[in-house]
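Sequence, please.
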C-alpha cells in the first residue's frame, strides 16, 4: 500500500504543486490542504484537496490530518510550518489524545526542540556558528537605539530581516542610517488592515488578518552584508541524516529581493557540510532549504538563513543523491531507494513561470532546461492567468500567452 503524504500550504505559491507531482511520481499517494482554487487542485497528482481557512489554521490542518491519516506531511511555506509547530504544541498538551498527531509532525519535521530555532533568525545563526559553519554576524534589533549601536559597530551596507517572512518579502539591504531606520520601522510594523482585508478578499488569503487585528510586531534582525552572489541548497533528511541534496548558485532573479528564476547546479563542499551539520544539530526530518552568499573575493560560502519547508527546487529529480522525493519515499516506506530518471543533463535550470515572466525572451529559456510541467496543461493555464509576462497590458488574451510559451518548447536536454 502506498504511503500517503499531505502537502500543506497557506499561500498560492506555485512550487507546492510541482512538489506534489514529484512526490506522486516517487510513489506517494498525495493529498493536500490548501486555500481554495490553489494550483495544487489543477494537477492530477493530488487525489484530494482539503480547504485551508486562514482564520482557523490549526482547525484546518487538524481536520485534514484526521481525514487523510497521512504517513507524512510536507509544508509548502513558512507559515504552514509554524502552524504545524503550534498544532504540535496544542496536541502535546492533550496528552495521549494528541500523541498520534505529535508523532506525525515529529516524523515529518524533526525534533520538537528545534521548532523555535528554525524561524528565529538570530538563534539559528548562533547555533550554526557553534557548529563551525561560516555565518555573517547577526543580532536581534529591538528598537532604533539598538539599530544605531549596531550601525556604529558594524557599518554599512547591512541587511535587515524580519522573522517569519520568506521570498525576500521581509529583507532590506540598507546603506545609510536614515535608510536603515526607515526599513526597521517598516519591517517591525504590523500588517496594515487594508492590506490584510485586500489579500483576504482578492486572494482568499486570510493569514494577515489576525496579525493585523492584534497589532503583532515582527522581530527584526540585523546581519552584516556579504558581497558576492547568492546560492541555495535543499535537503531531504531523516532524523538528522541528509539523504539527498541539491545545491545551486543563483544566476537570475525576478527582482532584487525576490526568488530565483535561473539556477546553476553546483558542487560546493562548504555548502554540503553546512547543511549536514545543521540537519544533525537540529535533528531535522523532511525537506529544508538553506540560503548562502558566496563571497566574491574568496568564494567562501556564508550560511545566511534556513527555510524550514519545501522550496521551489524540491521537485527537481537530478539522479542518485539529488532526488529528494525518492529519498523521502524510501525513508517513509522503508523500501529501497529508486531514483527517477534525470529530468535534464543541463546544469542550468530556468524555473517556470519565474524566468518566463521575468523576460519571455530570456536566452536561458533556450540555452538551459526550461522547467515547464508540459504533462499538466491545466496547471500551466493556472500559472498564466495573470496575463502576458514582461510588458503586460489589460485584456491580453490568455491563449496568446500559452502560444508564446509553446513556441519555446524544445526537447528535454
Amino acid at each position: 500500500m502506498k504511503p500517503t503524504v499531505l502537502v500543506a500550504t497557506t499561500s498560492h505559491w506555485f512550487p507546492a504543486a510541482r512538489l506534489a507531482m514529484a512526490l506522486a511520481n516517487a510513489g506517494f499517494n498525495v493529498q493536500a490542504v490548501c486555500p481554495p482554487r490553489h494550483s495544487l487542485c489543477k494537477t492530477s497528482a493530488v487525489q484530494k484537496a482539503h480547504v485551508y481557512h486562514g482564520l482557523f489554521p490549526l482547525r484546518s490542518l487538524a481536520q485534514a490530518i484526521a481525514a487523510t491519516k497521512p504517513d507524512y506531511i510536507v509544508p509548502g511555506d513558512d507559515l504552514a510550518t509554524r502552524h504545524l509547530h503550534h498544532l504540535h504544541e496544542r496536541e502535546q498538551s492533550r496528552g495521549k489524545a494528541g500523541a498520534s498527531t505529535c508523532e506525525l509532525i515529529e516524523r515529518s519535521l524533526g525534533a520538537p526542540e528545534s521548532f523555535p530555532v528554525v524561524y528565529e533568525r538570530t538563534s539559528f545563526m548562533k547555533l550554526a556558528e557553534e557548529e563551525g559553519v561560516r555565518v555573517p554576524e547577526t543580532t536581534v534589533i529591538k528598537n532604533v537605539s539598538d539599530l544605531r549601536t549596531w550601525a556604529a559597530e558594524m557599518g554599512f551596507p547591512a541587511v535587515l530581516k524580519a522573522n517569519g517572512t520568506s521570498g525576500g518579502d521581509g529583507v532590506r539591504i540598507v546603506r545609510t542610517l536614515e535608510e536603515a531606520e526607515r526599513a526597521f520601522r517598516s519591517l517591525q510594523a504590523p500588517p496594515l488592515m487594508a492590506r490584510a482585508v485586500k489579500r483576504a478578499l482578492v486572494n482568499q488569503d486570510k493569514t494577515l488578518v489576525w496579525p493585523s487585528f492584534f497589532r503583532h510586531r515582527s522581530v527584526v534582525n540585523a546581519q552584516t552584508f556579504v558581497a558576492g552572489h547568492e546560492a541555495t541548497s535543499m535537503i531531504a533528511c531523516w532524523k538528522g541524516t541528509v539523504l539527498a541534496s541539491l545545491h545551486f548558485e543563483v544566476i537570475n532573479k525576478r527582482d532584487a529581493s525576490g526568488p530565483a528564476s535561473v539556477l546553476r547546479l553546483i558542487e560546493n563542499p562548504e555548502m554540503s557540510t553546512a547543511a549536514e551539520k545543521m540537519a544533525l544539530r537540529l535533528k531535522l526530518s523532511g525537506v529544508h532549504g538553506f540560503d548562502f552568499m558566496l563571497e566574491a573575493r574568496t568564494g567562501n560560502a556564508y550560511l545566511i538563513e534556513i527555510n524550514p519547508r519545501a522550496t521551489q527546487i524540491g521537485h527537481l529529480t537530478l539522479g542518485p543523491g539529488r532526488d529528494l522525493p525518492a529519498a523521502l519515499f524510501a525513508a517513509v516506506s522503508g523500501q529501497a531507494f529508486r531514483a527517477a530518471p534525470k529530468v535534464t543533463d543541463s546544469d542550468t535550470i530556468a524555473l517556470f513561470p519565474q524566468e518566463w515572466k521575468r523576460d519571455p525572451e530570456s536566452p536561458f529559456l533556450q540555452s538551459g532546461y526550461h522547467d515547464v510541467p508540459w504533462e499538466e496543461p491545466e496547471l500551466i493555464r493556472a500559472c498564466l492567468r495573470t496575463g502576458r509576462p514582461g510588458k503586460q497590458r489589460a485584456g491580453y488574451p490568455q491563449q496568446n500567452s500559452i502560444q508564446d510559451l509553446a513556441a519555446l518548447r524544445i526537447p528535454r536536454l
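Residues 226 and 295 are 6 Å apart (CA to CA).
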